Amino acid sequence: MDVALWYVWPLLLCSPCLLIQIPDELMEPPVITEQSPRRVVVFPTDDISLKCEARGKPEVQFRWTKDGIHFKPKEEVGVTVHESPHSGSFTITGNNSFAQRFQGIYRCFASNKLGTAISHEIQLMAEGAPKWPKETVKPVEVEEGESVVLPCNPPPSAEPLRIYWMNSKILHIKQDERVTMGQNGNLYFANVLTSDNHSDYICNAHFLGTRTIIQKEPIDLRVKATNSMIDRKPRLLFPTNSSSNPVALQGQSLVLECIAEGFPTPTIKWLRPGGPMPADRAIYQNHNKTLHLLNVGEEDDSSEYQCLAENSLGTAQHVYHINVEASPYWLHMPQNHLYGPGETARLDCQVQGRPQPEVTWKINGIPVEELPKDQKYRIHQGTLTLSNLQPSDTMVTQCEARNQHGLLLANAYIHVVQLPARILTGDNQTYMAVEGSIAYLLCKAFGAPVPSVQWLDEGGTTVLQDERFFPYANGTLGIRDLQANDTGRYFCQAANDQNNVTIVANLQVKEATHITQGPRNATEKKGSRVTFTCQASFDPSLQPRLAWRRDGRDLQELGDSDKYFIDDGRLVIHNLEYKDQGNYSCVASTELDEVESRAQLLVVGSPGPVPLLELSDHHLLKQSQVHLSWSPAEDHNAPIEKYDIEFEDKERAPEKWYSLGKVPGNQTSATLKLSPYVHYTFRVTAINKYGPGEPSPASETVVTPEAAPEKNPVDVKGEGNETNNMVITWKPLRWMDWNAPQVQYRVQWRPQGTRGTWQERTVSDPLLVVSNTSTFVPYEIKVQAVNSQGKGPEPQVIIGYSGEDYPQVSPEIEVIEALNSSTVLVKWWPVDLAQVKGHLRGYNVTYWWTGSQRKHSKRHVHKGHVVVPANTTRAILSGLRPYSSYHLEVQAFNGRGLGPAKELTFITPEGVPGHPESLHLECQSDTSLLLHWQPPLSHNGVLTGYVLSYHPLDVGGKEQLSFDLPDPELRTHNLTNLSPSLRYRFQLQATTSQGPGEAIVREGGTMALSGSPDFGNISAMAGENYSIISWVPREGQCNFQFHIRFKPPAEAKGSAYLQSQSVSYNQSSYTQKDLQPDTEYEIHLIKESKILHQMAVKTNGTGRVRITHPTGFGFTTEGWFIGFVSATILLLLILLILCFIKRSKGGKYSVKDKEDTQVDSEARPMKDETFGEYRSLESDNEEKAFGSSQPSLNGDIKPLGSDDSLADYGGSVDVQFNEDGSFIGQYSGKKEKEAAGGNDSSGATSPINPAAALE
């Protein structure tokens, strides 16, 4: 039979006595199998049963001794002997008189002819019914406040008692630190009170063995009341002396007790002067009066335990010096052995105990001292040695160890036998193991004398020549570091002086399992997933298995859970949590071996919550400080970088947390500087590189005392919103800076430069209006926080101003300089600041086109605006029309609005013209083109002619041909000598005295088109006696001549072609007259006898038919469609004419009149916030807008599309900026979309009426 050796090999290495079974035909010395306990206590009516059972061959005989004297149970009255094999037990029927007579120490002897075994000593104790001795209990009289002890003194018993103190109503006497019961059963009063005055203190003793409770006579405790109880220091009632030396048995429990009296009632505490109290073994009971030490050990020997009773008047103490002793216990117990003749037996009996036990030997139950002297045995230091054994030396030995705490007994037989060698292991067994491991081949031999065992290979040579082979005492052969060539047959031979026997063991060595790719350590973030991979190689003849473990336990997929996915050597763990981290291992195994590869998974993430906060040093709250400490948070495998300390005021800002600061991650406490009168509740959040964790639970709430304000408001301003007032504003204090339940503000002001008395008011809101002031007068302003505890620090003086008025001065123009034909530079002198009546915010430049030098326009045009800061006295106006007249206005403005305007007119110089409006190419022949064009819409001066340039495309080295056309009225030009095989690029520019302008470009040529000429969208319509053919000539198609012929139907008389005229391709239509009504004609377009196109048409007397295809008719030839299209075109022309007339008169827009009135800056007050965004909306043709919206003044200023900016002037604006830094005085007008749409109304888009620009 095949055996997987590695499952069973540990059994083979045990002691030979456990592996060798005695054959059935052999005899066996007696062996005690069951016996009564060492101490037997019996009570009345209990049966007495003493057990003694043993096995042996031949059958065992039993005898007993009592107190060392032979005892015959069968001859005793009332004793019944158990008549059963292997038993010498007997029973004494329960009777009180019998029980007393049979008390004593018993021992059982079990014998056969091979020897005698004995039991341990059995002490039999008989206990009668418990009775309290007769006694006279006298009343106990004591004065109030004194101590007293009520004795119990229960009857003695072999079994532990339970004592209860109760009254006559069977209610337990209440025990506490003052009243307590000792281990001896007495009731101790540390001091008595009048409430203790009772006549029925009864001690009850519960005997568990007899299941009986008996009562002592009631004790009458009489307490004399007193008016003055005398205090006294503690005194010990138990134990009464200062020290004692109790003995404790090793491995058992020790009870120490201290009961004290005194007034006030003392308290008890326990100390261990030599070291700390063993917390895991110390139990305090009975209101700390009893110390229960569990499992006393050698370390408790010679140690001291001190009980200390103390009250306000003093202390009393008792010192326990512990002595630890032990009953005997085995170090080495003698064992049963089989021996062959001539061998030596050695029986070890090694014991320990405190005090050291006395060891004695018996042979067959007889002390060796009483046996005849024999040279065969020798006793030395507890070891019995017998030499040269013979079969007659078979015996049972007894080793007995004894001290005052107990007794140990061991029976061990020496069985001398003579047997032939036998191999108990089966023959021809097969063992399998893997390369590199250890194989164990079994050969369990038996015989007397003990046979020698050797292993041979197939050649009969001993295998021990190879150091990898090693034998065991029990016959097993071990082979380490197995190799494939170790496979084969091995022979085990066992021999003694009687015979020798041999068996065969077959060994098969398989390939070892290897993990070729194991999982790797991984660090992943919480919530992500991780994948471990594993690959292994196996012996092909074995069944492979690949499994995963976590921390040594098999890991399985969790049913419906998506947590784990295991497949084909992969382990995927989804949705990682911190509890998933650990050691994951891949286990590759067969029935013979198992290999494992481990990887560690660390799950990282933000820290866990800080578990515990603690506030201390509350006395520092008076200085607005507190000490906060906390337990470190779980770092989740990423070091904590810092802790964020936050607080909440549940009274003023519930559920809103504010940061108090951050501390380093290695710090777990901080002394916090607090603000007065804040209800602080703290929390702490740990932060690592993955972010903040969850906040800690909130701490307890502490309140700091009130105090005067420590801060004053900031951002104090004084500005008027009317000409005769000043509005003082400030940023109010945060509630956490109030330092009290409420806060107010003391506002003081006086004119700047005066030393007069401060005017003041105390307000709650962050605003105060000072009325009846002069216009734009500076004031000194102070704002101070005040509360119920006092004032804040002395505030800083701020300069504010009363309300502004409109400026009363206009800038003087210094110069207007033309930079180019579309850009001018305007300069002016700075205004007198005294006349501004406020803070000068800047200058507003308004300009508009009034006409060109060629013609003047009466229509209203859009105005352009440029706003510059106060420290700038120049502006660049760009995007102007060349050769035009402009009107200019410059105004200063302040926070109130615009001042009077300085007006001026200027003219822009002549510029280059725009591009020609159109350019068409008309092919005249294969070598000539006719060019048609329209002049530019924007002349920008006086046209002097045109410049025409052209050059062929895709031909290198060809120079561009260019020539002037000096006639400005010219509209066409014919080019000849062109190549019919090339395409050309044509460029046409109009010119003024300033040079050529923008070019219009077209590409084309005279090259012949491949295939038939293209008659685009050709159609025919017919009347009653005529037909019209129309087509759309193709751009770039050369003109040519062809004929159009109408042919009547074949059945008509004289069905020949009607005579046709020569038709030009560019004329785009032809009319054929003199047709017959209600007749269908075929139409052919012919050139040089080649039909270019053909179609059909039918005449009638009333309607028209449009033919769009040679094979059918379309709706575009229908009369109704032609009429509809004509009517639509006529209606559109009428609408365009009406629009042009309306626009020329300017009556379409209602805002013209508004503009003229809104130019006056006095008409409406202008606030800082009313400045809109100015745009220049002019264009050369008066339908198109030019320029773009102006940016904010703190950015680049590009008025009317100019590249000029405030940076060019080196100035900046110091007032009226928005929070984002942009200038408040931006201007806004119509959107460019509206300007481009041709709406030419010119509402007054001034800073004082920005809304007009949106009308």
Structure explained in plain terms:
The chain is mainly beta and 1255 residues long. It contains six helices and 97 strands. The protein has nine domains: 99 residues, Immunoglobulin-like, CATH 2.60.40.10; 186 residues, Immunoglobulins (Immunoglobulin-like), CATH 2.60.40.10; 84 residues, Sandwich (Immunoglobulin-like); 91 residues, Immunoglobulins (Immunoglobulin-like, Sandwich), CATH 2.60.40; 87 residues, Immunoglobulin-like (Sandwich), CATH 2.60.40.10; 92 residues, Immunoglobulin-like (Sandwich); 88 residues, Immunoglobulin-like (Sandwich); 90 residues, Immunoglobulin-like, CATH 2.60.40; and more. Strands 3, 6, 7, 10, 11 and 12 form a six-stranded mixed β-sheet that branches. A five-stranded mixed β-sheet has the order 1-42-49-48-45, with no helix packed on it. 32% of the residues are buried. The N terminus and C terminus are likely disordered. Its main location: membrane. One of its GO terms (biological process) is axon development. Keywords: Cell adhesion, Cell membrane, Cell projection, Developmental protein, Differentiation, Disulfide bond, Glycoprotein, Immunoglobulin domain, Membrane, Neurogenesis, Phosphoprotein, Repeat, Signal, Transmembrane, Transmembrane helix.
